[in-house]
Amino acid sequence: MTTEHIEHQIYRSKIEHEFGQGNKSKAEVRTFWVMVITFVTMFGEIFAGIWTGSMALLADGIHMGGHALALGLAFAGYYLSRRYARDRRLSFGSGKINELVAYSTSLLLLITAALITYESLYRLFNQNEIKAQEALIVAVLGLIINLVSFVILKGSNDFEEIEHGHSHSHSHDHIHEHDIEYEAKSEAAMALPERKDNNLQAAVLHVLTDAATSVAAIIGILAAWGWGWTWLDPLIALIASVLIGKWTIGLMKQTSKVLLDATAPGSVEETIRKKLESASDTEVIDLHVWSIGQGCWTMIASVIHHGSMTPQDYKSLLKGMKNLHHPVIEVQHCKHEII
């Protein structure tokens, strides 16, 4: 085996096929515990409903099952994204697994909002007697569980890790000794904007949805119990379903942009363009930047340069962008100076 071949193997071994998704986050751990709480509550309410003969408890237990499923999907998204973070079959990493899960659970939420709307409209025109005392106990219990779950989920930072790994871009810092020197100062700390964790947002939205329906139920039950306003319960639920639908559609738009490789905001492209064109006699003639998951961006650029700079030299200009992974830069050398 030649020296050149050995060096090539060492070079390849140092390059990790990972885009910042291989570390366990606090969001994953907190989602797991909320999922457990929801499952325990679900089984407890179903058992209590069967034991006491309470249809309200039984129905709420079955309803909690839908949220338990959504939270289970959210946790699975985190686990699978971390599990396959270095799988080379995934060209740009596993970040889109979380986006796919967030989009799927958003669809479930949209279906839930549609069902609530239908049921609310039906009950608005076909009012029936409410078993106030029993229903109030169930609604308060559901609200407490959801508030606890909300506090747990919101206590996690979207990007805070509890395990440390090495990213692909980090490996490059140790590989190429011929990189040009780049002054750190304030520019080295510059980073592209971090995307929200849409998977976490979807989980929070599920909890908020359930909490909103519980609040609506409590207000409606008290109004029906105290003043006989049976129409208020379905009316509040109808308003809540419209808000849920609006929030859900917003989340679906965010996740679909990532899934469809939508172009990054203009400010992101401009930041990268300025970095590349900070080198003398350089003009960026083509630039594509897109998100590959939570807090991760990648790019393809083509530059014209009058000089001897290499693609790796240009990559070194982007070192300060901690959440830019696997940049691909084509350098076209020209004989005439760029005006």
Automatic annotation (TrEMBL):
Transmembrane segments: 32-51, 57-80, 100-118, 130-153, 203-225, 231-249
Membrane topology field: Multi-pass membrane protein
Alphabetical list of Pfam families matching this protein: Cation_efflux
InterPro entries in the cross-refs: Cation_efflux (IPR002524), Cation_efflux_TM (IPR058533), Cation_efflux_TMD_sf (IPR027469), Msc2-like (IPR045316)
One GO cellular component, as annotated: membrane
Compartment list: Membrane
Keyword Ion transport belongs to the record: yes
GO-annotated molecular function: zinc ion transmembrane transporter activity
NCBIfam families: CDF, CDF_efflux_DmeF
Protein name (Swiss-Prot/TrEMBL): Cobalt-zinc-cadmium resistance protein CzcD
